[in-house]
């Protein structure tokens, strides 16, 4: 992310983006909620990427340099919130579970004019309560700085179906298994299997947004069977891949 736009006020609007479309790196002084009413939205920062289907929303704190990317036909709801409103108390992005009520509140706030009326203030108050209560989801894919670890991660991001062990990948990048295992825990805060599952889930969400059949998604993302993929997906998202849209 090279040229960084600075937008003092985070936009509140509904925007439609074609598959693969991007919003270049930028930052704004307000907090922002990004919600995909349809499709999947990915947000990338220097610390990694976060991805959210239509059952999740992204919280982007004020001042965070970030870029958006659309997967599938994206209906993107962007809601700017003044910095005095931080119901999560977070200064890093996170993915939130979106209840049916929170979904409708986000849509209402981004489709109605952003006038400072008593009705809108009441709407935002309920929305902030719902955001505060929303469970946070482990959908962050951190990216390392250490060259050998970055090389291993790049291999798996390029081909999530790559089933090689950490030792085998290490031989390709010139690092031992113990060294890489230590780097995964120390730099990324997770084990190698945990990170690989995350990258596979990220890729799976992208493929599902493109209406790829579940069996094909499982194969392309490295699961041994569709049932194994469905099991991991259900445990992560609370429902099956075929129901990842609200």
Describe, in plain words, how this protein is organized in 3D.
With 246 residues, the protein is an alpha+beta fold. It has 2 domains: 5-140, Jelly Rolls (Sandwich); 143-243, Arc Repressor Mutant, subunit A. Helix content is 39%, strand content 26%. The protein has 8 helices and 10 strands. The protein has helices at residues 100-111, 118-133, 147-158, 166-173, 177-188, 192-209, 214-220, 226-237, and strands at residues 5-7, 13-17, 22-28, 31-45, 48-52, 56-60, 66-81, 94-97, 136-137, 140-142. Strands 1, 2, 3, 4, 5, 6, 7, 8, 9 and 10 form a 10-stranded mixed β-sheet that branches. Strand 4 and strand 5 (48-52) form a beta hairpin. Helix 1 runs antiparallel to helix 2 (118-133). It is globular. The model has no long low-confidence stretch (mean pLDDT 90).
In percent, how much strand structure appears in the residues?
25-35%
Structural class, from helix and strand content? Answer: alpha+beta
Tell me the span between the first and last alpha carbons. Answer: 32 Å
**Topology, number of strands:** 10
Number of helices: 8
Main sheet characteristics? 10 strands, mixed
Find the CATH topology of the largest domain.
Jelly Rolls
Tell me the Rg in angstroms: 19 Å
Mean residue pLDDT: 90
Q: How much helix is in the residues? A: 25-40%
Briefly, what CATH class of the largest domain?
Mainly Beta
Shape estimate:
globular
Give start-end ranges of low-pLDDT stretches: none
CATH architecture of the largest domain: Sandwich
H/E element sequence: EEEEEEEEHHEEHHHHHH
Number of domains: 2
């Amino acid at each position: 992310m090279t040229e960084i736009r600075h937008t003092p006020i985070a936009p509140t609007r509904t925007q439609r983006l074609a598959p693969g479309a991007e919003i270049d790196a930028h930052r704004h002084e307000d907090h922002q909620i990004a919600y995909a009413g349809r499709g999947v939205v990915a947000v990338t920062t220097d610390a990694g990427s976060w991805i959210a289907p239509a059952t999740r929303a992204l919280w982007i704190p004020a001042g965070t340099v970030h870029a958006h990317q659309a997967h599938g036909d994206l209906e993107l709801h962007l809601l700017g919130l003044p910095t005095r409103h931080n119901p999560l108390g977070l200064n890093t992005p996170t993915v939130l579970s979106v209840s049916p009520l929170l979904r409708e509140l986000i849509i209402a706030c981004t489709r109605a004019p952003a006038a400072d009326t008593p009705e809108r203030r009441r709407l935002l108050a309920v929305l902030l309560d719902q955001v505060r209560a929303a469970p946070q989801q482990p959908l962050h894919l951190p990216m390392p700085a250490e060259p050998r670890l970055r090389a291993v991660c790049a291999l798996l991001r390029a081909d999530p179906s790559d089933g090689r062990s950490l030792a085998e990948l290490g031989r390709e990048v010139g690092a031992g298994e113990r060294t890489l295992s230590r780097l995964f825990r120390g730099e990324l805060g997770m084990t190698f299997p945990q990170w690989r599952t995350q990258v596979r889930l990220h890729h799976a969400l992208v493929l599902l947004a493109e209406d790829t059949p579940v069996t094909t998604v499982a194969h392309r993302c490295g699961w041994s069977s569709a049932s194994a993929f469905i099991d991991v997906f259900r445990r992560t998202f609370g429902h099956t891949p075929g129901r990842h849209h609200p």
